[in-house]
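In this section we walk through a basic example: taking a raw amino acid sequence and producing a predicted 3D structure, encoded as discrete structure tokens. The instruction is simple. Fold the sequence below.
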Amino acid sequence: MKKAIVVGAGIGGLATSIRLACQGFQVDVFEGNAYPGGKLAAFSLGKYRFDAGPSLFTMPHFVSELFELAGENPTEHFAYKKKEIACQYFWEDGVRLTAYGDRNKLVNEIEKQLNVPPETVLTYLENAQRKYERTQSLFLEQSLHKLSTYLSKDTLKGMVHYRSFEIGKSLHEVNQKHLKEPHLVQMYDRYATYNGSSPYKTPGIMTLVQHLEQHYGTFIPKKGMEDISQSVYQLALRKGVRFHFNTQVSEIVIKHKKAKGVVANDTVHYSDMVVSNMDIVPTYRKLLPKVTPPEKTLRQERSSSAVIFYWGIKKTFKELDLHNIFFSSNYKEEFEAIFNHKKCYKDPTVYVNITSKDVQTDAPKNCENWFVMINTPHDNGQNWEEEVNILKKQVLEKLNRILGEDIAPLIEEEFIMIPPIIEQKTQSYKGALYGASSNNTMAAFLRHPNFSSSISNLYFCGGSVHPGGGIPLCLLSAKIVSDLVKNDVK
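The resulting token sequence is shown next.
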């Protein structure tokens, strides 16, 4: 039996291990932490449970696909439900908007609250859908770094419509042109944060993200977000994947330009192939010290990071749903601050997620677990203690103003996540949540490929390589790797 080693048990590494096991490989996964999931993990503070990382779940069919590939019924192992409301938006000027999952409800709500005709929003979403349908094969489902990708029928058909992708404009420019209304522009600008980028820099093709969320909907696992990684981990165990936790890989073994295994705990573990689910920068800097690194790729601008306040709140708020966004009064200045890599923006946009509204065991009765996130620069040596103190004051003042209640006395549990801790726990270079940013036109092509062009039998998956960060794209990276392996074995 051929052997494969996966370095890292993030969601991309877990999915890759399952796909390779289904191809007949004996798979070993080495993970430095004591648990699987990477950023997609959980922890408790007193009587409160918190999802540590991603708080938004879209495109669940990519998870179901893993169970089906393994010959199992996904509904027997992983339960989730669709959210009627995707998000609630709050502006300082008193405007409120509920983003319903149902398209007709959404456009009617936008007309009611913002006086924007339904046809304006419908046309915008239809254009976003066309972008996705014309580019999904090229940008999301195949390697961008194989000539065969560009010779496929789907790619050639999509490239005929190149001008409709609006790559030459920023996401903000596209939203401004098609939507005009300031609140609606800001609402759709914020989707740039899904890959840690700025709407004033990331290309206009990124409107396809809005289509994905609106078309497929948003979901909440019935046991919390951690159940995504836990259910996939259990599936991997059933497929015979072997996990080595609390085990740091110190080197990927290369002989005669071929990956031959890894060194962990001063022991060489041999295999026929190696897949790194580790962030691409430390993969080269730490695990491949004798390999000439692709400096242009590794030195790309990092994505945004975050400061996250995990608060146990001894009250329930009827006006808040699962996802809530309290916008900055000056969105452009906020993104300029995030990407000058120095200071956090004061009066930031605040993301409040409350899973206890759906997962009743996440907080005591009449209490809530708040995941309060602020987009920040990645770690560049800032004084994070000082930054956190200022941010906490600003965040509480904003929430107090908009909700009309003093939040501070209601906080009975608290943990604060900062970029250096994110890097420490997940090996994400400089604490950047999505690897490289997508702040230029060629960003998609500049992400590291899912394979090595100079070393055979070496592959890469996860959010720092193609096609990008976020749960769906990490799962797609695993699919791309398994397809590459299948072709290489042939």
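Looking at the output, two observations stand out. The mean pLDDT is 92. The CA atoms of residues 231 and 301 lie 34 Å apart. In the next section we compare this with other chains.
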